[in-house]
Amino acid sequence: MNEEQGMRFSRRLLPVAERLESVNRTVGLLVSWLALAMVLVTFVVVVLRYAFDSGSIALQESVTYMHAMLFMLGAAFTLQQNGHVRVDILYQRFSRRGRAWVDLLGTLLLLFPVSVFLLVASWDYVAESWAVLEGSREAGGIPGVWALKTLILLMPLLLLVQGLIWVLRNGLFLAGVEAALPEPGARLETDADG
């Protein structure tokens, strides 16, 4: 492949990475609102309990559902924004190219295998829940435990999408496409940033 063919190929791959990023960005921004919803629902539960001596199991369980959705569906967005905790003792001293290699190899050797393991290990567990349309064990609870358990599969799928984005971006950067990676320290622009 000559240089011109390589540039054409990379111009086709970068928009693919950008479209995939918009999926994780959209999911992340949508589920971020669940933090506010959790606070409001918890407030309602407390007011109902202490002011009106009333309660709702389904309302209480909804906080657990929102919490699970926030963290499991937001994990890939947090990864996209470099928001996960990591040890930067050596990484911060590397050049952009060195960081690209670390991110590429880390994605291929760690993120992909762990995500695939999560998918394979939890598939039967989630499938059994779907088979019986598992509901809450509590009377008056939410009848959608099967939907909650589906998050166990969605999280690694979204992480795999983010991993693919990183493989594309870091691979293109290492192949000489400077625009494939944002400047160091810059985070990817989100729709909320304007």
From TrEMBL:
It comes from the Bacteria. GO terms for cellular component: plasma membrane. The chain crosses the membrane at residues 27-51, 63-79, 100-126, 146-168. Pfam families: DctQ. It is a multi-pass membrane protein. It is found in: Cell inner membrane. InterPro entries: DctQ, TRAP_DctQ. Residues 38-164 form the Tripartite ATP-independent periplasmic transporters DctQ component domain. Its main location: membrane. The complex comprises the extracytoplasmic solute receptor protein and the two transmembrane proteins. Part of the tripartite ATP-independent periplasmic (TRAP) transport system. Belongs to the TRAP transporter small permease family. PANTHER family: 2,3-DIKETO-L-GULONATE TRAP TRANSPORTER SMALL PERMEASE PROTEIN YIAM, SLL1102 PROTEIN. This is TRAP transporter small permease protein. It comes from Halochromatium glycolicum.
